[in-house]
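Moderator note: this is an archived Q&A kept for reference. The question asked for a predicted structure of one protein chain; the sequence and the answer are reproduced below.
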Amino acid sequence: MGAAQPYTVVITGASAGLGRALALCYSAPGTVLGLTGRNRERLESVAASCRSRGAAVVTGCMDVRDQSAVQNWIAGFDQQHPIDLLIANAGVANTLSSCDEWESAERTTEVVDVNLYGVLHTLQPAIERMRTRRRGHIAVVSSLAGLRGMAVSPAYCASKAALVAYCDAVRPVLAKDHIGVSIVMPGFVSTAMSDAYPGKKPFMWSAERAALHIRKRIARRCAEIAFPFSLAFGIKLLRVLPTAFADAILARLFYLPARKA
């Protein structure tokens, strides 16, 4: 792809938030977009906006946890429009409001199923076809929370950390087939997901700014896209500090109210 606009782009979780912003960012004459999401009404609204910018759009209303539905849609879309770039963006979060709460088994399962298995369901059929063609690029939206666990969102942090490890593992293998792999690790992006976050949100970016930054970095085939720089640098620094010291810093920065007396 080089630095050129990819011709065919698939974006999951495109009906709102960062996914919507990415869809609009890649919309241009000559581009074919494959957009998926769970809310049909919102998804079709995004598709209409993308078409107004000149892009051809194919939508798929599905839950990424449905492995068969996702794989069949990816395979069918790719057969008609070979995928140049796949952005696995679909994800959910769960945040605790105080130390009185505990993340239930059901909620933990839902978060991991969407954020980890949903991404794998999306990637695997696309990667198989890209390897046959020996070209393509995949970008997986993780989070800076995947670099260091935070008390407010245990399952979310775990699922996003798994995505970082997965991309690190497959990157050298896929490079042999000329397939690029980018792990995207945003900090706070102004979306409904971040609105539900109970703590401080330092260095928050708009979804539009984040999407433009991601597009530029993908075009350069960057392996890691972590932003904003100040927060990314700080999170990475925490990983080399003594654990007790890092925990104390996170407790002040991402405050979780204490248990009630």
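Archived answer notes: The mean pLDDT is 91.
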